Amino acid sequence: MKTTTARGPARVLLTLATALAAAAVPCVSASAAASTPPDQKPVERTDGRHGCPYAYFDLGETLIHTAEDGSTDFRPGAYAHLRALRERHIKVGLITNVPPSWGATDAERAARLKLEVDATWKGSVPFAWADFGDRIYTPRTEAERKPAPALWQRAKARSGGCAVVHQAETAEEVRAAAAQGFVAYQVGLPHRPGFLPVPVIELLGRVRG
Hints:
Elements: H1 7-24, E1 54-57, E2 64-66, E3 72-74, H2 78-87, E4 91-95, H3 106-120, E5 136-137, H4 150-157, E6 164-168, H5 171-179, E7 183-186, H6 198-208
Parallel strand pairs: 1-4, 1-6, 4-5, 6-7
Antiparallel strand pairs: 2-3
């Protein structure tokens, strides 16, 4: 009887990753992933034992849902997805539009974002702000608002050459992220996983990082 090699599961996951990404975005040429300007923050390095993918997310209607009464909570499956990423030591971040007037820096705008979300939060589990660290990218000007490329470029510039994933709820945002070299996945579509499976994200870090 022929034995299955260890590479078999990896090939299956890589095929799945390719299929899921292709289902979410059109093919993007290498020239579309233009070089990005340097960021003011230092390039991050990840623990090589776990590969080095970065999993970025939009916020509203991707990780959290706003109800008709204005209250907010995790979208179904979002908390479990973040927890699984944390258990595998995969760094996560947010790439989200907020008013530039909320602060002069990403840190100031992130602090205001936390206040706004926490003020309406009705979930039984608090939002996992600690998971994101200082990887919360928001527009410095109106011109940087998504789908402009600036936020994805700034996030990618800190990735240290690692694979970068972006998950969002709209096809427009998925296409924009893919154009900047991200493996982009549209969440919440029927007949497919609600989020890009964590083993696929982990494998992307190993084969592309």
